[in-house]
Amino acid sequence: xxxxxxxxxxxxxxxxxxxxxxxxxxxxxxxxxxxxxxxxxxxxxxxxxxxxxxxxxxxxxxxxxxx
Length: 67
Hints:
By secondary structure, the chain is mainly beta. 9% of the residues lie in helices and 21% in strands. Strands 3-1-2-4 form a four-stranded mixed beta sheet.
């Protein structure tokens, strides 16, 4: 998948879903029906990061599909 540059993504690589506390790698996003489903995450549940360690420091755990 290509990196998203419009808000709330702003070209950052890692997306934290505050609803389930999973972090996703947008450069390795899996788009299958039971995989990442980034487009289904409500914008108010998105917290973006430049670096993986920032998300894990905030308590996010890795998505099993893209990380």
